[in-house]
Amino acid sequence: MTTNANTKTKATKAEKGKVLISGASVAGPALAYFLRRDGYEVTVVERAPDLRDTGYAVDFRGAAFDVLQEMGVLDEVRGQDTKMRGTALLDATGAEIGQLPAEVFAGELEVPKRELTRILHRLTAADVEYVFDDSINALAQDDNGVEVGFERAVSRRFDLVIGADGNYSKVRRLAFGPHSDVIRHLGMSGAGFTAPNHLGLDRSGVLQQGKGTAIYAFSAADPKSLMVSLSFATDSPALDRRSRDEQEQAVREAFAGNAWETPRLLEAMTAADDFYFSSASQIHLDRWSHGRIALIGDAGYCAAPTSGMGTSQALIGARTLARQLAEASGDHVTAFAAYEAELRPYVAENQAKGREGAAMFGG
């Protein structure tokens, strides 16, 4: 089964139906694993040309470990532990004024996101069709399936479509409405990038907070590299959709006049080839499914990075949806309703944590 030059693998025959998942980060491949195990033919479409190699380290908490264990990759994921030792709190001059324990940022286990993505892809690559460098541009469903249009490939028909494509989910926009209707901004945005480790950090981090700004930098698996986050107060997530030049300019303006290492970090930002920009936002929907289309992870119920629960929520959401489909013998109406009823209290708790974390930043 080949749809374009960037199709990575082939799925075997469908036993329970054909499912299309949009997004190949964490939630998408995790759901693909469980659905394929249960007999579905699964295709994952990803707009990036290949596996994403950017992003900070991700952490795991609570029941997420049970999901990794069930997938048979817990030991492998543990082998990528960053072994962070903690974060020093700095004043405006760079002098240390306190310490935060490792679990504040690293949870119970922290690994580089690119390593988790690679593990999940390797786990599913033999039995799941991955289509990179393409994206959904049309959805038309009826009682028997969903006709899906793509930006590059010819249209195809699936029994179910699942959006696992993040805050600005294409699936959600097409099936549920505009992003502006469901994105709730938490008052902060920021840039992330890799820089040379001129601070000499070793499996440790530094955090410097000002009024409406925060610099967080840490070095984990690669002692030569520094992961940097420059966050600042914003009124909306509008910068997420602007050009890199506009985003960089907004960062420079927010940190203008900051002393310590800020000028050097701003220079490193401009030179970085892995620059990305995002806002702390949550997704709030009255429902997570519409007919044969459903959402998981950040696409359906992002709790914001300030919650520390994004990766765990993605894994737990994927397993919950797959389990409900199995228990309902493929009856998507019953399964989608049960999935939402089971998971909503957990999501509500995590979103409350996300709002609390953003409020702490604001001082």
From TrEMBL:
This is FAD-dependent monooxygenase. It comes from the Bacteria. Keywords: Monooxygenase, Oxidoreductase. GO terms for molecular function: monooxygenase activity. Residues 18-347 form the FAD-binding domain. Transmembrane segments: none annotated. SUPFAM superfamilies: FAD/NAD(P)-binding domain (SSF51905). InterPro entries: FAD-bd, FAD/NAD-bd_sf, FAD_aromatic-hydroxylase. Pfam families: FAD_binding_3.
